[in-house]
Amino acid sequence: ISRPLSKCGMDRERGDSSLTLRGLQNRSHEKMKLRKRKSTLYFSTQEKSARRPGDLLGENIYLLLFTIALRILNCFLVQTSFVPDEYWQSLEVAHHMVFNNYGYLTWEWTERLRGYTYPLIFASIYKILHLLGKDTVQLLIWIPRLAQALLSAVADVRLYSLMKQLENQEVARWVFFCQLCSWFTWYCSTRTLTNTMEAVLTIIALFYYPLEGSKSMNSVKYSSLVALAFIIRPTAVIPWTPLLFRHFCQEPRKLDLILHHFLPVGFVTLSLSLMIDRIFFGQWTLVQFNFLKFNVLQNLGTFYGSHPWHWYFSQGFPVILGTHLPFFIHGCFLAPKRYRILLVTVLWTLLVYSMLSHKEFRFIYPVLPLCMVFCGYSLTHLKTWKKPALSFLFLSNLFLALYTGLVHQRGTLDVMSHIQKVCYNNPNKPSASVFVMMPCHSTPYYSHVHCPLSMRFLQCPPDLTGKSQYLDEADIFYLNPLNWLQTEFHDNASLPTHLIIFSILEEEISAFLTSSSYNRSAVFFHTHLPEGRIGSHVYVYERKLKGKFNKMKF
């Protein structure tokens, strides 16, 4: 039997129901808010998908087209030589692969220190041109470089996209500006170098790397790109060591990361590399191990020159940064903590490469885009001096880019265009022969001539037997050039029709040139800064035949 409620009890019950009603109203209000939030997110997604048709690579198509156009212009405004590997470890190998072993493979390929994965890209281009009957020498030279330019443009856009995710459009814009106006990036980004490909893959991999604030992180994608960079150039493991270590330390599911991401990706890419090299070497070989053993463990790269331990800090790094250097230092102090890993990567790379005796500017090129992050951050925070700083940065880099791209060290490329014309304009091709008497690999070879001309150059393979007083052919030649020539060509019948030399050698071998009936037939400017065995000009000497100077029409 229910007892009647007292007035006090009735008030309490009324109060409780009032509180309950208020709570329900609040919860309902929260749900409405939540629904609003959800619908806003949904609307944002719809907005994104609506914008997608005008986008490419997640960015405005006009930005991508502008970047591609700039890199194509970049490609045609770089007409100078940088290092031999640009031709001898890529285009020359590709030419040998496609045109029935008609091309030259350097000692690295007989020792299996290099892999065919990177040259295969250009070999594919050459094969397509050959099948279409369009394998002219100009297309063989420029199409691979244009392909590299397109890849560099994609990397530039990816760097912009990454910074827009991590910061905002303003920071992204200034990082992008710094990347595009870097003189060394301009100088290298369209060259067919493994270092250039390593830099491209590093930027794109960083786009998918789990940096704090990134919305595009993907372990499989970034690790695949890192693995590909390692396959192409094994030293790519150096800049990626701190980045991979950081990811491993921060990942809560470490075993899952290794077993389901890193190991499968590593297995697939390494297997692909092994199969490609098996096809072209004719036997199973792990070129990545051979490369690291020669260059890192045995440090035999010193044969090609050595530098003091501090070279990268005192010369190499400041030179490739150029006038970006003060902005880089300023940006290091301003950038948030999440970018510390990028700075650690740059310093780690410089330190590791400093321990190797043989040093080159291009070795540290892959970390240059990381430096642009700090330079862009510096420009973002400049208020009073922003316009003068931008003008200074642009004009100083423009001068360096144009000078190094169009003037400095162009003679060794121009002379091969001349030789190519000699071959194509000579009705009796088998009689023509060329001897390049320069420091070895100074010029490109068959990839820039594309003609079955008899050619020779001074050899310079390193000693792999451990002799203490080893001298290669080029060293022996430069000890006494005149005596070497008189001994080598004691029989006039074996004399080449054309000699290519640096101007610095002319006086020393003038007696041989006169006695063997050679006349200078062409001169090409090379550099304003001659040094050692490299002269300011490149000379072509042609031999008189039957009392008449054998000149070709050009």
UniProtKB/TrEMBL annotation:
A Pfam family of this chain: Glyco_transf_22
Superkingdom of the source species: Eukaryota
Native source organism of the sequence: Aotus nancymaae (Ma's night monkey)
Protein name: Mannosyltransferase
Membrane topology: Multi-pass membrane protein
The keyword Aminoacyl-tRNA synthetase belongs to this UniProt entry's keyword annotation: no
UniProt entry keywords in alphabetical sequence: Endoplasmic reticulum, Glycosyltransferase, Membrane, Transferase, Transmembrane, Transmembrane helix
Homology family: Belongs to the glycosyltransferase 22 family.
Subcellular location: Endoplasmic reticulum membrane
Function: Alpha-1,2-mannosyltransferase that catalyzes the transfer of the third mannose, via an alpha-1,2 bond, from a dolichol-phosphate-mannose (Dol-P-Man) to an alpha-D-Man-(1->6)-2-PEtn-alpha-D-Man-(1->4)-alpha-D-GlcN-(1->6)-(1-radyl,2-acyl-sn-glycero-3-phospho)-2-acyl-inositol intermediate to generate an alpha-D-Man-(1->2)-alpha-D-Man-(1->6)-2-PEtn-alpha-D-Man-(1->4)-alpha-D-GlcN-(1->6)-(1-radyl,2-acyl-sn-glycero-3-phospho)-2-acyl-inositol (also termed H6) and participates in the nineth step of the glycosylphosphatidylinositol-anchor biosynthesis.
Major enzyme class: transferase
The protein's Enzyme Commission number: 2.4.1.-
InterPro entries referenced in this protein's UniProt entry, alphabetically: GPI_mannosylTrfase
GO molecular function: alpha-1,2-mannosyltransferase activity
Residues passing through the membrane, by range: 61-82, 223-245, 257-276, 309-329, 341-357, 363-382, 389-407
GO CC annotations on file: endoplasmic reticulum membrane
Entry keyword Transit peptide: no
GO biological process, one term: GPI anchor biosynthetic process
PANTHER family: GLYCOSYLTRANSFERASE, GPI MANNOSYLTRANSFERASE 3
